[in-house]
Design goal:
The strands form two sheets. A six-stranded parallel β-sheet has the order 9-8-1-10-11-12, sandwiched between helices. Strands 2-7-6-5-4-3 form a six-stranded antiparallel β-sheet. It is 44% helix and 22% strand. The chain has eleven helices and twelve strands.
Length: 316
């Protein structure tokens, strides 16, 4: 199936980007301080293992601030939006722009070119935290390699904001991108892309998170990042990339195509040689030794021909 891939869809965070987030700016509003913003965000994210939550907790631990875990109650994940919790008798919401609109929270800015976490305290907008995530070094090279291999369309799906998605897409040269997606939105958009490109070959999806598992299952070929990828993504995928490198996607396609070429070479070789010796045998011109070569000899030649796959790199 990989040999026939004509469309590749990537998840963004942790796949095309490193998925290692760092807090780069804290902006406070409505009389709150930066320390308060960071404390409330850490309180809400303390039970989450999401990379964004981890970056906030790391920033909090480096700040020297203290958090009373006994005051954290009613923690809950809001799928595709963020988290909520109650801390020191205050209701805390920490999440993306979608969460603000769903909760009808007034805020003055939506257009960020990085990942942004908004903090709401007792339904009052308290501020936001900008979090940076670097593009993987070989992501652009992987996109170019896939194009050289004849992949017609390269798309990107992400739950991140549109400005951040556009920034990554423009740097990598991705054809189509969709942002602000909930897990169920990813499946819907992927199905749409699949329908549009059903005459262009197989469609592959590359992801790493729990939310990517449904899309990995729907793809003709699902590829999961094995290093930092979630167990759900790894178990669902058809291919696991043990090194978290987008270039391995291009290498997998190249391996599949060369493998198919070698398989057909071996089939053709076996039929040709056996056909020749069947003719010679029917004419009484083939001895036992020739028959042994026609059988075992062709098998050995096929094995030796197959070892050429070991020399493949990331080129088709």
């Amino acid at each position: 199936a990989l040999a026939d891939v004509g469309t590749v869809v990537f998840d963004k965070t942790g796949t095309l980007t490193q998925g290692v987030f760092n807090v780069i700016e804290i902006v406070a509003h409505n009389g709150y301080s930066k320390d308060q913003i960071l404390t409330y965000a850490a309180a809400a994210e303390t039970q989450s293992n999401h990379p964004i939550a981890t970056s906030i907790l790391h920033a909090f631990s480096r700040s020297g601030l203290e958090l009373d875990s006994r005051k954290i109650t009613q923690h809950a994940n809001l799928a595709g939006q963020g988290v909520k919790a109650r801390y020191a008798d205050r209701d805390i919401f920490v999440g993306n722009d979608r969460l603000l609109h769903l909760k009808s929270i007034d805020h003055d800015r939506c257009d960020f070119d990085t990942t942004v976490v908004h903090v709401v305290v007792d339904r009052e907008y308290a501020g936001y935290i900008r979090i940076g995530d670097e593009i993987r070094e070989d992501a652009a090279s992987a996109v170019q390699a896939l194009r050289k291999q004849g992949v017609g369309q390269i798309a990107m799906l992400t739950g991140d904001n549109a400005c951040a998605a556009e920034a990554v897409s423009s740097k990598l040269g991705v054809d189509v991108w969709h942002a602000d997606l909930l897990p169920e939105d990813k499946v819907r958009i992927f199905e749409s892309i699949k329908d549009q490109n059903q005459d262009s070959g197989k469609i592959a999806f590359v992801g790493d998170g729990v939310n990517d598992a449904p899309v990995l299952a729907r793809a003709d070929v699902g590829l999961a990042m094995g290093g930092l990828g979630s167990d759900a993504a790894i178990e669902t995928a058809d291919v696991v990339l043990m090194k978290d490198s987008p270039m391995k996607v291009a290498e997998a396609v190249a391996i599949a195509r060369k493998t198919r070429r070698i398989v057909w070479q071996n089939i053709g070789l076996v039929f040709l040689i056996k056909g020749i010796f069947i003719v010679l045998g029917s004419m009484g011109m083939a001895s036992m030794w020739e028959a042994v070569f026609a059988d075992m000899g062709t098998a050995l030649v096929a094995v030796l021909n197959s070892t050429r796959i070991l020399r493949i790199g990331n080129k088709p």
